[in-house]
Amino acid sequence: MALLSFLGAIQQVTGSCYLIESRDGAKVLLECGMRQGHREDEESNRAPFAFDPLSLDAVVISHAHIDHSGLLPKLAGAGYRGPIFATDASCELMELMLLDAAQIQEKDTEWENKWRARLGKPPITPLYTTEDAEQALEQRRPLAYGEPREVAKGVQVTFHDAGHILGSAIVELQVQDHHLTRRLVFSGDLGNTCSPLMHAPTTLDRADLVLLESTYGDRDHRPSADTLDELADILQQAHRDGGNVLIPAFAVGRTQDLIYYLGRFYQEGRLPQQAVFLDSPMAIRANAIYSRFQHLFNSVDQAAIAAKKVKRIEDWLPILRCTPSPEESMAINRVKSGAIIIAGSGMCTGGRIAHHFKHNLWRSDCHVVFPGFQAMGTPGRAIVDGAATVKMLHQRIAVKARVHTLGGFSAHAGQSQLLDWVSHFDHHPELYLVHGELEKMQVLQQALHQRLNWIACIPEPGEQIAI
């Protein structure tokens, strides 16, 4: 029988990776994500792949986020030269994200080697290089939603809109096992039905086996309207306090959501700040991709944007100032009050947000807004959990700012949305929970049993099952 191996994002959120092997010898890698969070998770990215990269026939990627695509350059560096399938928009976003990730790997390694030289330690090599990323990008093969494609002998892939970020996909795989066809559906990251710009996740009704993400398997998000009111109140309070508002945000997806919401506030007269800085070169380039793919937005938001005759995401928020260069970024630090600063990275593991924390986090008039999930082991999680200090740029910074978390902004489905999506399948397929911390998986597992009378399995890392 065909086999499925659970290689990543198993009892944890990041590092998505699954291997499908047919009895006819086809091997398809589903996802090739980077692990993020604890230092040991990041170090595990250097471990050899659990399979021979040269044996793969194809790679299938659900969307461009690094925890789903971030090890593709390493795979190419190990010799893989086969096709990498993703949606059209994901292929464009992957170019942006993988080249940026490669540059970070090279710069971090250069910095680390300076310290190692002073300590008399041997130098290390980067996890992968820009050349590796460019090689992986040459292997991309774009597919439209709903377009079936045989990606390896007896293995057919169809992408469906997951509603998570631009180009995100639910992956449907049909595997021929002699005269038997088995249908595997991987949810990818399912979108929050209240997310702006995106469609609600496509529902499917046929599968033999389902892999269901469980990032927020333990709870529902607050209603979108309540979250927007809370954000508006935070901005008003920050304006009265006289400080800046810092928003760590993922460059792809979350940033565009925030620009849309702040643009609505501006047009409704609910935005007291006079300047919004987008301090993320990657997010600025992602905006251009989102602008080119506006035809993929949901019809309601498309109409609202069209009514304002907006061709670029930035034009939706007229007071938005993009700061791509380091000099422009550093100039923001002269602004001591009245600004909203959106910067990466989303979990505060690096990027320009670290510099803005250095200049603002210790100030009691500053407000920090976390609009998304913070993985365990990240600086963002430490701040959310109430740390008195946080290490940034090799120094300790006091956390005196007011900290806010906005779960309703999540681009992931909440528990009820996960249950609703999976309930559309007929005949109770085998169900496996992935992409979640173990405790959250267990809560979702119990909810599935109580509400739908479904048995869901929580696989172990490295476990292999028959499809």
Could you describe the 3D structure shown?
- The protein contains 14 helices and 22 strands.
- It has 2 domains: 3-219 and 411-466, Ribonuclease Z/Hydroxyacylglutathione hydrolase-like (Metallo-beta-lactamase, Chain A); 224-409, Rossmann fold.
- It has 467 residues and is α/β, with parallel strands linked by helices.
- Strand 7 and strand 8 (155-161) form a beta hairpin.
- The longest helix has 31 residues, at 88-118.
- The radius of gyration is 22 Å and the shape is globular.
- It has helices at 39-44, 66-69, 72-77, 88-118, 130-138, 224-241, 254-268, 281-292, 299-307, 326-331, 353-360, 379-384, 415-422, 438-452; strands at 3-8, 17-21, 27-30, 58-60, 84-87, 140-143, 149-152, 155-161, 169-177, 180-186, 209-213, 245-248, 275-279, 320-322, 339-343, 367-370, 389-392, 395-398, 402-405, 430-434, 456-457, 464-466.
- The strands form 4 sheets. A 7-stranded mixed sheet has the order 6-5-4-3-2-1-22.
- The model has no long low-confidence stretch (mean pLDDT 94).
- Helix 4 packs antiparallel against helix 5 (130-138) and helix 4 (88-118) runs antiparallel to helix 8 (281-292).
Strand-helix topology:
Blueprint: E1 3-8, E2 17-21, E3 27-30, H1 39-44, E4 58-60, H2 66-69, H3 72-77, E5 84-87, H4 88-118, H5 130-138, E6 140-143, E7 149-152, E8 155-161, E9 169-177, E10 180-186, E11 209-213, H6 224-241, E12 245-248, H7 254-268, E13 275-279, H8 281-292, H9 299-307, E14 320-322, H10 326-331, E15 339-343, H11 353-360, E16 367-370, H12 379-384, E17 389-392, E18 395-398, E19 402-405, H13 415-422, E20 430-434, H14 438-452, E21 456-457, E22 464-466
Helix pairs in contact: 4-5, 4-8
